[in-house]
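User: I'm new to structure prediction. If I give you an amino acid sequence, what do you actually give back? Let's try with this one:
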Amino acid sequence: MKNTTDNIYETNKAIVAGMVKTPLKFSHKTYGEAFYTFTLGIERRSGYVDEINVMISERLIYESPLAEDDFVEITGQVRTYNENVDGRNKLNVVIFAREILINKDIIYYENYVFLEGFLCKPPIKRTSPLGRDICDLMIAVNRMYNKSDYIPCIAWGRNANYAEKLSVGTKIYIEGRIQSREYKKKLEDGSCEMRKAFEVSVLRLEEGFDEEDTEYTDAEPEED
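Assistant: Good question. You get back a string of structure tokens that encode the predicted 3D arrangement of the chain. For your 224 residues, that looks like this:
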């Protein structure tokens, strides 16, 4: 991955393009600057649409307000924060926009994420409903002001088999895409409810070494 020169000097980069699916919703204000969220629909080759939450400053859309069904390209970072919902902590995963290009007439989709961080939890290996090996990873990615984003990732196939052996604290580089998926959560009373998870699906995985890097590539990471 070090031959990907556009990413060499950044630890967290996301480039996504798709359709605005929801109206802007006020999120919070920091030092007088207001931030809003909306859902961006990014269609895969399979036709499945990932619905990704985007957070954007009012300054980026002051002159060109966003509307539903606009096609936009956003460059930014994957950010996470905890929110208390009904007495439980919920990890929110968003794309934090740094640049935006609004396309009124051009339709195209893009979904690219690059992360450089450290494994902060033991990997969890499991098997998908279709029988494929997958491995859940939690990556801590540092950012300014001594903060970190804890980003859930999912590796597939031989990436999953390799990631299973990694230890907490290992430095890794990841290229992939951000995805959404629905799943059933069994509750304490025995009932089930549908929930939505957001994670980075790993296409390329590289472990950081002092002298030599090992890289693994999974050509088809997506599974609908």
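You can read the tokens as a compact description of the fold. Here is one thing that stands out. The chain has two domains: 5-110, 113-217.
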